[in-house]
Amino acid sequence: MKRRVLLQGAAGAAFLAGGGGAAQAQSRAETLRYVTGNTINTLDTTMPGATRESFGLSMNVYDRLFTFGRKKVDDYWTFDPTVIRGELAKSYSISPDGKVITITLRDNATWQDGSPVTAEDVKWSLDRAVSAKSLAAPQFTTGSLTKPDQFKIVDPKTVTVTLDKPDRLALANLCVPYAIMVNSKLAKKHATADDPWAQEWMKTNTAASGAYIVESHKPGESTVLRRNEKWTGGPDGALPNFRRIIIQTVPEFATRANLIERGDADLSIDLAAADLPTIEKSTKAKLVSMPITNGFTHVSMNTQMAPFDNVKVRKAVAAALAYDDMFQASIFGRGKKLYGADWTTTPPDVSFPQPIPNKTDPALAKKLLAEAGHPNGFSTTFAYSVGTAATAEPLAALVKEALGKVGIQVELQKKPDAEFNTLAADRKMPFFTDGATAWLPYTYYFFYLYFTRPQRWNFSSFQSQKMVDLTLDARFQTDQAKYDDDCKQMIELFTAETPLIMLWQPNHDAAMAKSVDGYTYQFYRQADFRDLRRV
Which tens digits make up the pLDDT trace of 308-331? Predict the structure, then answer.
C-alpha cells in the first residue's frame, strides 16, 4: 500500500524524473514513461530465464540483421511476418538452389561506442548464438542454423549463411529476440577461458548498436534509455521520436492503471481486464487492443493417457464445452474466437491458428462418450496455474460444469506456476488449460512446435507420423502450392484428431496517454519504443 500511495501521490514528479537530473532536463514531449508489471532481469536476452520484458528491452537496444515488417490492420498496427527487411543488413540474396544466403551490411552501421559494424562482428555473433549454452541455439535449429562453419566472412561488409537444404525459417530466425548482433571487440574484452562468449558480463552490460542506449539499469526497479543519435537501422534511417525512455516496474495492476489514467505514465500493457473499461472512459488515456494473432488459449488433453487416448473422448469433450460462456467469463469477450467455424473437414484457407468447427452440442458429446465405452462418463482432473488464475479460474469452473452435464466428473486443481510448468514439461497432466505464443507465426511452424516431438510445447503429447512428415516436407518445401497443400492437410489432421481444443486468441491491450501514437503489436508481446511518437 505504501508503494501505491507513493507512486500515485506526491512522487508523480519523481516517477517522471526516473533517471535523475538528466531525465529532468529532457522535455516532457521527448520522454516516454513506461510502467511494466514484471522485471527486466537480464540485458542479454539469450540467457535462460530471461523475462519477456528482457526480450522487449533487447529489441530496442540491440539490432539484428533483419526485422519483420509492420502493417496497419483495422485501427491498429501489427508486425508483418510476410515482410523481412534489413536492420543491420542493407540487402540479402539467396542462391538459386536456396542454400546460400548472402548478406550485405549497411555501410554506415556503427556500434554504440562509435566503431563500425563489420562482418567479423556478425560472424562472432552468429557463432555465439549457435555455440553458447543459451536460449538462442535451440531456436536457431528451427531454421537449420546449427554450427559456426555455416557462417563465412566474404569481405568486411559481407557474410554468407550456408544451409544443407533450403529452410523457410532461416531468415525469420534472424529476426527473433535471440538473434542479437554483438560488438565482438567489446564483448571479447570481458570474455574468459570459462566464459568465451562473455555471457556473465553481458547480463549487466551491453555491446549493442540499437536505437536506444542503456543509461541506467536497476533490476526489479527501473531502467532508463537514451536515444542513440547515430542509429540508422530504422525504415529510411529515421530516428525514433522519443529521446528518452523511463521504464519502471510496478507489480500492482491497479497502480499501473491509475498511473495511466491520471497521466502520470504514458504506456502500460497487460493490465487487468477489470481495469480496462476505466481506461477506455478516461479523458487522459486510451486503449489500443488487438488479438494476439500468433498465439492461442487452449484446453489440452494428454493423448497418451486414458481416456484421452481415445479420439472419441476428445471430441466428446470438445462438443460438451460451453464456448461462448467461457469466452465471456474468462476474458470478457476481448479477443478472437477460435471455435464455431462453419466448415467441417476442409478449412477455408491455410492460415493457422484459425477458427475450428467445434460447437457446443451436449447430445453429440454423450453419443461419442457411449461409443468410446464411457456411457456413464468418467472422472478426471483439470489443472491451471496460479499465474493464469484471473482468466483460467472462471474458465475451469465452466469446464467442470459443462462436462458434469454429460457425465464427466472433474476435480479442479490450481497449481503453483513452478509445479504446473514442470508437470507440463514432463507431460504428466491429463487435462489442463494454458496459453501459447509462437514467435514465428507460420502454419507449418505452429504444427511443428506444438504437435510433434516429445517436448515442452507439445501440450497434448500428440504422436502422429503423418504430422511429422507433413511438417518436415513443408519446412523444406520450395513449391508454394505444395507447401499450402501440406499446411491444409495439417489443419485437417488436427481437426480430425482433436489433440487439444482451441479456444481463442486473447487481446493484447496497450493502455497509453492519448498523446501517444504508433503502438505496434509485436510477436514477442512487448512494447517497441522505436515506433512510438507523441502527437
Answer: 999 999 999 999 999 999 999 999
